[in-house]
Every structure is written in C-alpha cells, then in structure tokens.
Amino acid sequence: MSSNDIIVSLDIGTSKVRVIIGEVVNGAINIIGVGSADSEGIRKGSIVDIDQTVQTIRSAVDHAERMVGIQIAEVYVGIAGNHIALQSSHGVVAVSNEDREIGDDDIERVIQAAKVIPLAPEREIIGVVPNQYVVDGTDQIHDPRSMIGVRLEVEATIVTGTKTAIHNLLRVVEKSGLKVAGLILMSLASGHLALSKDEKNIGTVLVDIGAGATTIAVFNENNLVATSTLPIGGEYITNDIAYGLKTQADIAEKIKLKFGCALVDHAASDQVFKVNRIGSNTDKEFSQVDLANIIEPRVQEIFHLIRLEVQRLGFGDLPGGYVLTGGTVAMPGMLAVAQMELATSVRIAVPDYIGVRDSSFTSGVGIIQYASRYLRSSKQTQNSGVKKLIPKKPAPGQEQQKPSAMERFKNWLSEFI
Fold first, then answer.
1. In this structure, is the dihedral angle defined by the CA atoms of residues 191, 43, 62 and 173, taken in order, positive or negative?
2. How many CB atoms lie within 10 A of CB 95?
3. I need a surface site. Which of 26, 153, 155, 412 has the fewest CB within 10 A?
4. What share of the chain is helix, strand, coil (3-state, %, to 5)?
C-alpha cells in the first residue's frame, strides 16, 4: 500500500470523534478503515479539556489502526465553530516562465498574494479557497495550468479563525501523537461531498446538525458564500427527554437513538419501553408517541432557528432549498418536520460508501474527498495530506535499516523545499 494512495481524516465532534482512512485508486476513493470513540472534553463543538480530548482521539485512532493493521502518522483535521469567518480577497502576479506558460509555481504565488489581507491580532488564516482565476482579463477559469498568459489573478475566499481555537485543536492532535497535514473547513468539505454541482451553482443551504452544534453553510454560484454555527443540536433533544421522562441523560440518549421519532403522526403507540426514573425504584412504561410529544417541539424550534439564521445571513428561499446532514438528522421524522418548518425543498445527504452510509460520516468522508481533489496534487509532499502509513510491527527477522548520511541530508533538506 503506497503512501501516495492513503488519506486519513479526523472529525472531532461533540458526541463522537471519528477517524476515517481512505485509499485513492485511480482517482476513486475507497473507505478501508473507520474508527470512532465517544467524545470526552468536547462541549458544543469546542475543546474544553485537552487531556480528555487527547485520550478520545487516541482511542478512535487505535480503533481505525486495528481495523486496517497499520499505524496512522498524519491526518487531515476538520475545523468548525462560530469563530470561523470568510473574507473575499484578490491576488495578482506576473507569470514567471519565459514561455509564459502558467505552472504550479505561479498558482502558488498568486494564492500567497491573496493571503496578504489585514487581520485582527487574534485571528489567523486557515485556508484559501480559489473561486476563479483570471488570465489576462479572461475570467471564470478554474484551472489555469498550462495556459499562456502574462498576468494571473485569483478571486478567492479566505477562511480565518481565532488563534485560540486553532492552536487548541492543533495541540490536541499533536499530543495524540499525530502530525497535522492540514486543516479543512468542515462545511466546505461536507458541501463538496453532499451537494451536486447544480445545487452549489443555483444556491443551496447545507445544514449539519450534530450533537452540540449546528453548522449552516450557504453555497451560491459554485462558491461557499456564508457560514454560521448555532449552539444547538441533538444534545438539546436528549436533555428534553431526560427532563420529560425524569431519567438520566445517558439513558435518555439511548432511548432517543432506539425509539426516537421527530413527528408525533409517525410515532407508534404500540411501541413501548420502560424507563428507570430518578428517585424511584420502579420503572415506568412509555410509548413512542409519548417520546415524540417531547421531541417534536424541540426539533421544530431547531429548524425555526436555522431558518432565522439563514435570513440573518442575508439569504431568503434559495432555489436549491436545504440539504441536511449530521448524526441528528438520522432520526425518523426529521425530514418531514424540516419540510414543514423550512417550507421549501429539503433532502438528507448520506455518503455512498460501504461502511459509512450514515449522515454522521458526511464531514469525515468529505474531508478525504476534498483533500484528494484540491490539496493533495497542489501542495508539496509535507503539506499534501497524503498519509504515511507504516506497519504496526516489523516482520520477524527483519530490522529497519538506518538511513545513510546522504539520505539523512536529503530528508533534512526536504523540510525546506
């Protein structure tokens, strides 16, 4: 298995940390390993305990490693949160080649030129998303490589975040024994996987409803034009169930996953379950209808707040409607409630890969696809996101040969070129 064929994503969520190993074969991606662990140290999508988060990441990585039988060295890390901001930028450079053919160096220089923007001291650039290139006045160019020109321009979106959130995220990954190959905005990665080209062109809202937070991303004219994060999610539904049934939160979560229904009309009165209530030695019986009466108002509120936030961002009813993803939308009845509350076309996006056909894996698989298409071929090896996988143990009787002096010099030099 070649290192050039492997990309690993790390999705740190409020309820789960997921590690997904993807193998790129002739441009196609196969998911060959998945590891997950219950999140500790994460609240509403933010890291609140470094050590607990590190242990969770190590557990998820170990799970994925044992599935495939390799050791993970590098990961692409998804980043999200209400600290994320988008800023438009413009870069201009002169084509450097004597024959005026645009190459990778020219593209790298114009991207660097677009990064020259005023930033507040507490903010840092996460990435640059080229929206279009312009060659000698000709616009709407998506890949100018091998074209002839004198002046190369780029219209780009700069993704920025707060230094505190970025550095804490990098810190927990590095303390877990992993190298960060790059940070990828999760709404951008999810949009790349969940939305069709036409949906991104005509205007669509992608909504990722997780356990502790809901991320809203608006795509229009093939570009990510706005993003926002609301501190609401599946945990709010769980808390309502715990309060309504007078039981513990972990029991409420299990009940939600097994019997939860977001619409009373879709609930079954003959589907019953018993709940161990706080302060009582006896279990009480409830039906799925009882549970749906607790869940439906909260789900309605979540979608109402989502619609208000999209309007606040300056967008009304976009032609593409809404596309839902995230673990919470897997609950029966969620789509029906969303269609009623949002009053437009709504669908649920699910990755079409064996082993990850669940809406909660959209971000993790999206990171792999995004890295494979946009970052792996355009960056130098150390920043490419192609994961270096090494055997867990050397074969019996084999010893690892030490690199020669020339090889050590080349490895040292490669860090600077």
1. positive
2. 23
3. 26
4. 35, 30, 30
